[in-house]
Amino acid sequence: MPVKPVRQTYVNTSLYAADAMGVCSALYELGGMSVMHDASGCNSTYTTHDEPRWYDFDSLVFITAMTEHEALMGDDEKTVRDISEAARQLNPRFIALAGTTIPAMCGIDIPALARLIEAETGIPSFGLPTDGMHSYLRGAALAFDAIASRFVKNTEKTAAISVNILGLTSLDFSYVGIEDSIKAAVKAADIEIISSWAMGSSPEDIEKSASARVNLVVSETGLKAAKTLERRFNIPYVIGTPISGFIPDIIEAIKTADAEKRNQIPADKLIGDAASVAIIGEYVFASSLCAALSKHGISACPVCPLESRLKSKPADSVSDEHAISEELKNAGTVIADPLYAPIAKGKKFIALPHEAYSGRIFRESIPDLTESIEKILKELI
Amino acid sequence: MIRRLNENTAVSLNLGETPWPPKFAGGLEYSSPARGTWNIVHVGMLLPEAHLIFVCAEACLRGVVLTAAEMGAMDRFSMINIHENDITSGGMETLIIDGVGDILSRLEKKPRAVLLYTSCVHHFIGCDLPLVYKTLRENHPGVDIINCYMNPIMRKSGLTPDQLMRKQLYAGLKEQNHDPKKLIFVGSDFPTPEGELRELIGSAGFSVSEIQDFSDYDGYLSMGEASAAIIFNEAAKPAGKELKRRLGIETIYLPYNWDYTEIKAGYEKLAGYLGVNVPDYSSLEAECEAAAARALRLIGDTPVAIDYTLTYKPIGLAYFLASRGFNVKRIYGDGYSKEEQASYEKLSEIRPDIELWPTVNVMMRKTDRTQSNYLALGQKAAYFLGTDRFVNIVENDGLYGFGGIIRLMALMEDAYKTPKDTKKLVQIKGWGCGGCL
Lengths: 381, 437
Fold this sequence. Notes:
The complex is a heterodimer of chains A (381) and B (437). Chain A is of the alpha/beta class. Chain A is built from 16 helices and 13 strands. Chain A has three domains: 19-134, 3-Layer(aba) Sandwich (Rossmann fold), CATH 3.40.50; 162-260, Rossmann fold (3-Layer(aba) Sandwich); 268-380, Rossmann fold (3-Layer(aba) Sandwich). Chain A has a four-stranded parallel sheet, sandwiched between helices. In chain A, helix 1 (19-27) crosses helix 2 (42-50) and helix 4 packs across helix 6. By secondary structure, chain B is an alpha/beta fold. Chain B has three domains: 13-33 and 281-426, Rossmann fold, CATH 3.40.50; 48-168, Nitrogenase molybdenum iron protein domain (Rossmann fold, 3-Layer(aba) Sandwich); 179-274, Nitrogenase molybdenum iron protein domain (Rossmann fold). Chain B contains 17 helices and 14 strands. The longest helix of chain B is centred in the middle third of the chain and has 18 residues, at 282-299. In chain B, 50% of the residues are buried. Classes of the chains: A alpha/beta (381), B alpha/beta (437). Strand 1 of chain A pairs antiparallel with strand 3 (77-81) of chain B, so a sheet runs across the interface.
C-alpha cells in the first residue's frame, strides 16, 4: 500500500515548548501569577521541562485543572472564582491567563475571562489567546507585548545611550549564567541597561523601560514588544544576540539605531546564501551565530523550525521533520540541539543544546556563546 | 540562590478534627518539582517491542516526548502533531491513519505493537476512533494496534488516565488455552521481588510471570495463558476486570497493605485459589516487629512525614509506624482510597495530632522548605520539607507483604543515616525506570 508522507509526523525528533509555557516563562520573574487554563499536564510539563528556575526560584504558576464537565458546560464562573481566590491568598502584582487546546476548541474567551478576574480582584489581569498548538515564541511574545502595552510607563529617556534587553528567556538561554554574560557584554561597551525582559530585572525596572534609547532584541520572543515600545515611546530596536565575535556589530548597531532612530538587523548582511553549515534554532540566535561564524570565514545559514516572522520563507515551511530534512540536504555540517541528531545522519553534527527544545536533558552542556565560540570553531575546523 | 515568597501559610488539616474522607479546598493547582511517579509513557514502555505514537497538540506532546527522551527511548516513540485546522477541517481520522502509516514506514524495524495515544481533543470533536483503529488494523496486519489515551480532562469522568493505561497495557493479550498452574502479576510498575508471596505460589506448584520479565512480544503474549491475574494496585482493578471479560482470566486482588491482618487475609485468599493451606506467618510478623523496633531505636523521635507517592496506602503506613512509636507528624496527599478508611479511623484515635497536607493546593508553593529535621518517606514530602533524609521510592516499589515491611524499615534506617541529594533525585521523572539524567 502506498504511504503518504505526513508533514505533522515526528519519528525521531522532539518538539519545542508550547505557547502557553512561553507565557509562563516570559513572566516568571515579574511578580505576577500565571495561570494556564488546562485540564492537567501543561503544568507539570512546564515545571519539569520548560522552567529551569522552578526548584529554586519561587514564582506563581498554576493550572485551572479543568474537567470534562467544566469544558462541556462552560463553567467560566468557577475559573474566575478559583483564580480570584488564589490571587486573594497570594496577592500577585498581575494575573496572566493563558489558554490551551481545549479552551480554544470550546471557544472560551480568555481575554474576557481576564477582564472578569480584574473586575473581581482589582489586580491588573490580561488573557492571552494561546491554544497549545503553537510554539513558545508566540506565547512569550504575546506575554512580553502585554507587559509593553500595559505596564511600561512613559519615562524620560536617559541622557546617555541605554538599552532594554528584550527576549531574554530561560527557554532560549537557559539558567546557567548566559543572561549575565549578555548583560556584561552590553555594559562593557558603556551602554546602560535599563531592564532585561525578563531575567534579572525587577518589575520596577521593567516599568521604567521607556527611558531606554534602544531596545536590543536577543530572541524573537522580544520582537513584538519591541514594536509596541517603538510605537508607544519611539524606541528603535536592534535584532541580534550578542555572540562572541558578533558583539562589536551589535554594539555598533545599537549606536546607529540611537543616532539614526532606525531599526537594525546587523546579522542580515553577514549571512551568505551558499552555506555548508546549517544552524537549527530560534532565528535571532541562529542567525547571530551564523554572523559570528562568518567572522571566521565560515558560511552558515539559519534553519528555523519555529514560526518566525523574520525568516524569508513562509512561516511553517520548515516546521516538521520532512521539511527540516529537506532544508539540510545541502549542508555538510549541522549545528543543532542533540535531539536533532537523528535527522542529520551522514552529516557532521555539532551539538548545541537548546532548553526550549530538549528541556533539561543537556542543560549542563549548554555553552555560553557570548563568552566564547571557540568550542564550536574547534569542532568545525 | 534560593528566593522565597512570603511566610508559610498553613493549609493543613488536623487529622483528629477531620472526618473521613479528608478533603482540601479545590481550585487552581500547583505542580511540585518532585517528579518520580510514572506517567503513561513510562508504563507504556513496559510493553516489549512496542512503539508509542501520541496524537496531540504541541503543548501535550512536549511532556511525553521529553519523557521518552529522558528515558533514552526516542527510538520507540513518535508523534503526530495536531494543528488548528485539523480540529476544524474534519480530517482528523485521515491525519491519524496516514500519520501512523507514515511513521511505521519510516521506522528501521517494524514494531510488533503500536500503542496509539489519542487525546482530549479527539474526545471533544467526536473523532471516529473505532473507524481509525479498524482501518489501521486492516492496513497493518502484522502490528497489534492498541488504543491508549492521554485525556487528562477525563480524569474525573470514568476511568482515570492511569487506570486506562494499566488496562490497555494488557490489551494485546490474545485468547488462548489457559494453563491452570500459571499466574500473572498485573498492573504494577515495578517487578515483584522475591518473598513470601512468590514462595507461596511456588510451593503450590504454580508459576508466575509479569510484564517486566519479558524482553520480547511473544513472551508478553504468553501471559495470556494464565488462569488468574494477581493485582496489587487499585488502579489496576479495571485491567483485571477486562482480562476476565475478554480472556476469562480470573482476578485475585491482593492490595498493598501495611497491616498484618489484611496481609494474611490476602494470603488466605490466594491459598484458597491455589488449593493449599495458608502458611504460618508468625515468624515473619516477628521479623517485622524486630525490624520496626530496630529502626525506631535509630530514628527515635525524629519527626516523620509520609507522602502518597511512596505508597498507595500512606494512611495505613502512618498507622503502622505511629502504632509502633514512630513520631509521624505529617501525611501528604490530595485524596485517599476508600480502602484507607479503617486505617484513618484507627490512626485518628491514636494520633489525632497528625497533620494532613495537600500537594497541589496553591499555597504549597509557599510552604516552608527548611524543615531538615524530618525523615521523609517519599519524594514530595522530602521536597516540601526541604530534608535530605528521605526514602526514595515511588508507587510501593514492589514492597509487598511482610517482606515489604521489613525492607521499608531497612530503607528508613538507611535514609536516616545517609543524606541524599534531594534536588537532584526528586526531579528525575519516572524513578526506577531508567533514564539519562
